[in-house]
Write a structure and sequence with these properties.
With 674 residues, the chain is α+β, with helices and mostly antiparallel strands. It has 23 helices and 18 strands. The strands form six sheets. A five-stranded mixed beta sheet has the order 2-1-3-11-12, covered by helices on one side. A five-stranded antiparallel beta sheet has the order 5-4-16-15-14, with helices on both faces. Strands 6-9 form a two-stranded antiparallel ribbon.
Length: 674
């Protein structure tokens, strides 16, 4: 019977039923949304929460605004209240949360203008966005903003709305709220602001980045004159008061750091990541999950502090970045010697020459071209390059350079001429492409590229090195994971980004070569310092010891360290990467060895292992110190026996025969090659 009734329905009945169902669902969703946000607004009477950042283990770590000081409405200067209303929303006391007149004017302007847009948001809408929404410019967000503004007006008084607004508004420099801004900028309470000071702060609200009194003082002052003009037009001040305020000299204090020194660089980096998405908003009871581990951050800050102290050089700065090579998750980040004294984040914002720390990308490009770690670079001593300024002969500190070296030997010794010659052989385009794919972009196409003559940030270079322990995968550095609103819903998710840019075979060959740098080359200081396990890396030093680097890795972490001055100058005589950057890296690796263990790297199955002499890089004879070299398809595998060590009688005879045949072959080639 039930099915026969359904079959008897006409298509019009089905449409009516469908529309009715959709309408019921829409009403229920609207009621649920309104009820949830209505409850959140009701809770505002008990105080406003804050956006809280959580560490990688799900523990509360810090608040978005650790400095905010809420004050009562009566503790705010009347001139500031009048200034904000006059310049931001002069019909505030007349509208119900949205202003139809302002919206119409803004819409007409935006339709007619081809150069920019004009907003029509009321103070209540701005508060609704700050408390509950994001800064994304979508029609859906604007509709929610309007609905929430009306809810705020229904459930709160105008006075309560203004009090919340003045305590939550973003005023540049990482500062929220009028009381905190007054204390930091003017060293006085919000109740003590003069008319000129009130106009200056009120003018910041429209565009905190453009009108910050610390970074754009002239623009901030000009904006304050606009505020004073609007106050006069609204009848809040007289022309004489306006002129007096224009002439008043305002003493602005130096910009303060926005948080304590401990974890300061990491916290401010994450705050900026949040602001890049949500602007100056500071919604209550939102949760931000991050990739950082505070205990690892502590180890990083301690390693940097102790490492700089050991140098004995005043004013020296350092940066350290530690990230997971499998995911790109940033585990720790230090941007200088002391955040409280210098909040400039050198790990992210500074771009310096990497020196020899760039060389691994040259060698990886060569391996991609079909060379092996024991392929030979010949003609090193004769290398000279015609440059615009004359003939350039790349030489390092080491004297007595060999004329012929294997790739492995040249990298572990950081031979400059060998790296430049190798770049010429494989072509700059291949090196530039691989470096860009790994994350080191915009490098110069010059012969000195192999010596790190471009510039790069510590964060980008460290992330680029992840391509080796991850066996070929580029990862994008990630600090934020998810952002959840007060209802627990995910509003932003930052996904792991991995892309294979290098074959696993080449990446593993590079891992073994960079392990050799630590075991036998310029990075041996790490072993002397007590670093254990399977680790690899590369030192870097620029001309006249201006920049010192060490970027290294284990299977669990990639860590980059830079040391230098903000204005490039000599660190000290002999201030190389091995002397000043490597000790910081080693100290960090030891401190985190338990939480970030260095497991052995597994060779891809397609590689062929071959035992070779560690000195001659030929097939071993009796008495040779040996190691295992790995060869990919197409690599030339050495067939000659070691010519350095004696071996037994049978091996000596075999070697003599090989030498004779080789000489005979070269002679025949010489005869017929004439």
């Amino acid at each position: 019977m039930r099915f026969s009734v359904l079959r008897g329905l006409s298509w019009r009945d089905w449409i009516v039923a469908l529309v009715g169902g959709i309408a019921i669902v829409a009403v229920l969703m609207t009621v649920a949304w309104t009820g949830r946000h209505g409850w959140a607004i009701y809770r505002l009477n008990r105080g406003v929460g804050d956006t809280v950042f959580y560490d990688a283990l799900g523990r509360p770590w810090f608040r978005l605004d650790e400095q905010r000081r809420d004050v009562k409405f009566d503790q705010i200067a009347t001139s500031f209240k009048d200034a904000v209303i006059a310049v931001e929303d002069h019909r505030f006391y007349l509208h119900p949360g949205i202003d139809p007149i302002a919206l119409t004017r803004a819409a007409l302007y935006n339709v007619r203008s081809a150069t920019g847009t004009q907003g029509g948001s009321t103070l209540t809408q701005q508060l609704a966005r700050t408390l509950f929404l994001s800064n994304q410019r979508t029609y859906g967000r604007k509709a929610k903003e309007a609905a929430l503004a009306v809810l705020l007006e229904v459930m709160l008084t105008k006075r309560e709305i203004l009090e919340l607004y003045f305590n939550r508004v973003y005023l540049s420099g990482g500062i929220y709220g009028i009381e905190t801004m007054s204390e930091k900028m003017l060293q006085k309470h919000a109740s003590e602001l003069t008319l000129a000071e009130a106009a200056l702060v009120a003018g910041i609200i429209r565009a905190p980045a453009s009108y910050s009194p610390w970074t754009h003082p002239d623009a901030a002052r000009r904006r304050s004159f606009v505020v004073l003009q609007r106050m006069r037009e609204e009848g809040k001040i007289t022309p004489a008061q306006e002129q007096a305020a224009r002439a008043e000299r305002i003493r602005i204090q130096p910009q303060p750091s926005v948080s304590g020194a401990r974890h300061g660089y990491a916290k401010e980096y994450l705050r900026q990541q949040f602001r890049d998405i949500y602007g100056g908003d500071n919604p209550p009871d939102w949760r931000v999950d991050t990739t950082f581990v505070p205990e690892i951050q502590d180890a990083a800050e301690l390693a940097v502090r102790d490492g700089l102290r050991r140098t004995g050089v005043k004013g020296l700065q350092a940066a350290l970045v530690a990230l997971d090579p499998r995911t790109g998750n940033i585990l720790a980040l230090v941007g200088g010697s002391d955040f409280s004294k210098s909040p400039f984040n050198r790990a992210v914002r500074s771009r310096r020459q990497p020196g020899s720390a760039f060389k691994p990308f040259v060698y990886a490009a060569a391996l991609e071209k079909g060379l092996s770690p024991v392929s030979t670079i010949s003609g090193i001593k004769a290398l000279s390059i015609l440059a615009p300024e004359g003939v350039w002969i790349p030489r390092g500190e080491r004297t007595g350079e060999q004329d012929s070296m294997t790739l492995r030997e040249a990298l572990l010794e950081s031979n400059n001429a060998a790296a430049v010659l190798l770049q010429q052989q494989v072509g700059s385009a291949s090196v530039l492409r691989l470096a860009a794919d790994a994350g080191v972009r915009n490098q110069p196409d010059v012969p000195s590229l192999a010596l790190g003559s471009g510039v790069v940030s510590p964060l980008d270079l460290t992330a680029a090195y992840a391509v080796f322990p991850s066996l070929g995968y580029r990862v994008r550095p990630r600090g934020l994971v998810t952002v959840r609103d007060s209802a627990g819903e995910v509003v932003t998710r930052v996904h792991i980004e991995r892309e294979q840019v290098l074959s696993a075979q080449v990446a593993f060959q590079m891992v073994t070569m960079l392990e050799d740098v630590v075991n036998r080359g310029t990075g041996t200081g790490a072993r002397r310092a007590g670093v254990l396990g399977s680790v690899g890396g590369k030192t870097g030093t620029t001309n006249d010891y201006h920049d010192a680097w060490f970027v290294g890795f284990s299977s669990s972490v990639v860590v980059g360290v830079w040391v230098g001055f903000d204005q490039p100058e000599r660190i000290r005589e002999g201030g190389s990467g091995a002397q000043v950057a490597l000790p910081i890296w080693s100290d960090f690796m030891k401190k985190t060895a338990r939480s970030l263990p260095a497991a052995p790297f597994d060779a891809p199955g397609s590689l062929r292992p071959q035992e070779l002499c560690r000195i001659s890089y030929m097939r071993p004879v009796e008495g040779c110190p040996t190691y295992i070299e790995y060869f990919k398809d197409g690599d030339d595998v050495p067939s000659r026996l070691c010519t350095i060590h004696t071996g037994n009688l049978k091996q000596a005879t075999q070697r003599a025969i090989q030498g004779l045949l080789g000489a005979l072959g070269r002679g025949i080639k010489g005869i017929f090659g004439r």
